[in-house]
């Protein structure tokens, strides 16, 4: 498969020590060679693969020096895209890196689309679709655990399992074809039913095993949407600052200081939290505060975890009781804050309202109870099982949806076999399962979906 030659800046824009402009395609080396002036007249066309060379980028029209560079030359197919790849290392400034890119574009290269380098790696057979998606997961990883999960998927752990399941289904389908083609053998049908049940049950169990890891995997990939709620002035913003270890939210004794939802990512014991500090939920005549309260109620509905904060030095009010009703059935940790002040709250009432929710006492002013809270968050969702390194975790929403569909399809196939449905009818559900699993790794996926997935990538990746 041949493509034109693409170029893009692969490092973040801004000032830095080094910036990298990447080229990929059949003409990558030739285009770079037009602009490169090496020591002693060295030409990039003649150098060995996977070597780096010092020199200058020259504007062919003016013959002026545009930049001092180090150029890496990597010849396909032993590259990320399986094409010829050139990486130009220049000084990390906006002007210098853009000058080099513009010279490449005016001398035969085309500006790469977002994710096009990784897309080419997929289309050229270097990686499958699940591995390509793991590249972006690796870039976006916010904890060591999330990074390890992405690395495992990049190495093909999920791909190998999916391919194994598809092969099991393919062999079963081949056996079914024999039954259809040679119906005169009486024992073939009985053997086929037995084999369908055996292989179908195995595939079903493996899919279920993957789906059991999906909640943890999805949390590690996307972060746990965690909402801090409570009446005004109970210490919600102080809690955000304690978890972030930085003064992100304004803290005052004046109720209603937080007028909007404040969002921040934080790593708690390896669990990425998308932490949302909300405006205190109460009835108010202040128009701006009322808008903040409504936004707080909205994010409450979409949360994975609720941190409900109460005031140790104040009585439980009707508003507190309404908050407990609003989060009923959700994952909640109740935090009784301001334990450095005299006790006014009725703890028996708190226990009654909390029901089975985890309860943590804190004094954020004196930095007490934060460790216990972090431990409670980690144990609530993972209970230590996330450390199992031999498990294949599913974290991608698209993969989870396809696995659920595949599970439904294989269950229908098993049910049909148990009901004595003709083999050629069962074959339809088996084939559907095989196709759905193929969509995960990109063996049976529409071109429009591929374009959509890679458009979410960084420019230059």
Automatic annotation (TrEMBL):
Give compartment(s): Cytoplasm
The positions annotated for binding Mg(2+) are 237, 258
| Enzyme Commission designation | 3.6.-.-
- Residues the entry annotates as binding (6S)-5-formyl-5,6,7,8-tetrahydrofolate: 22, 87, 126, 461
**SUPFAM superfamilies found in the cross-reference section:** P-loop containing nucleoside triphosphate hydrolases, TrmE connector domain
Can you tell me which residues bind K(+)? Answer: 233, 252, 254, 257
| Protein name (Swiss-Prot/TrEMBL) | tRNA modification GTPase MnmE
Taxonomic classification: Bacteria, Bacillati, Bacillota, Bacilli, Bacillales
Point out the gene that encodes the protein: mnmE
